[in-house]
Amino acid sequence: MANLVYKRVSTDQQSTARQDLVLDEAGIEDPVVFEEDPGTSSRLHPLQRPKFRELLTYARPGDTVHISEMFRLVRGNQHILDVLDVLHRDRLALRIHDGAFSAMDLTARHPRTGELLSTVKFMVQTLAAAGELQRDLQRELTYDGLRAAEAKGSKGGRRPAVAAAKTDDVRTAYLEGRSIAALARDHGVSRGAIRTAVADLMPDHTPIEQEDVQAPELAVTLDMPGKIADFLRTAELEPAERAALDHGVTVRRGQGYTLRVSAVPAVHRGLLTRCQPLDGGHGAPAVPAQRKARREYANRVSTLASAGP
């Protein structure tokens, strides 16, 4: 039986030193290590991450998956339950060596029904909710801090990627025929940063006063299934999409809920696109309940087809 070790860091500025220490202290015999590329986001569903999918392909029944702490693998309640379902299906054990989940057997199931023990599910949901509360509080404190800074005259947001002192050099080089990609490599910034610096010099640039002004889209309210909302809260979203989700109103429905989201049609369509992974594909299994919820949400968004492009 193989010991499969999974490691991940959230940014390319971090290292796996702490994870290595915890896993070394665990004394894992003959580990087979699967390490995600630096910066692989925790918001990306574990079943969509390249190295974890590679681990599942490599694994055989009876193998054990080792991680230093739960949140190196999952983020949020639904992620945990989805991963546990796949591990159970493939008959793999899970061993967490540090943190709140380390004292629990998360793979324990009822001997007759095969479902997760109710005590395990309760603890998973409780600890995941605590983690979500912590992230929400951090977001609120960050927002309050930005508002306080703005009140003192400090402007928030990122600084320009191309330093002001180098902007003229970038623009001159662009006019001389240097490509966007080459300039990005020269200055160690993204292509988008270069495009911003030379936007008014690009052939397809249209002065603002010549642009056609279109009437703004009106906000539309749609009910989003709770499973979709849970997934999107852990996904990479545009600011407008995140704001629409954060301001949604929870409506309880039996044991589940829907999130009443008000946004322009373009944002609704963007949110629908973000949850495309729930349909499965690319070697990742789909969770039936999530796939059904996505289709239900897609049907509601499709009614907005005539509202805009």
The best one-word shape is: globular
Main beta sheet: strand number and arrangement? 4 strands, parallel
Strand order of the largest sheet: 2-1-3-4
- Estimate the strand proportion: 5-15%
Structural class: alpha/beta
Secondary-structure element order, N to C: EHEHEHEHHHHEHHEEHH
| Quaternary class | single chain
Distance between the termini: 54 Å
**Spans with pLDDT under 50 lasting ≥5 residues?**
208-214
Detailed description of the structure:
With 309 residues, the protein is α/β, with parallel strands linked by helices. Helix content is 43%, strand content 12%. It is built from eleven helices and seven strands. The protein has a four-stranded parallel sheet, with helices on one face. Strands 5-7-6 form a three-stranded antiparallel sheet. Strand 6 (249-253) and strand 7 form a beta hairpin. The model is unreliable at 208-214 (pLDDT under 50).
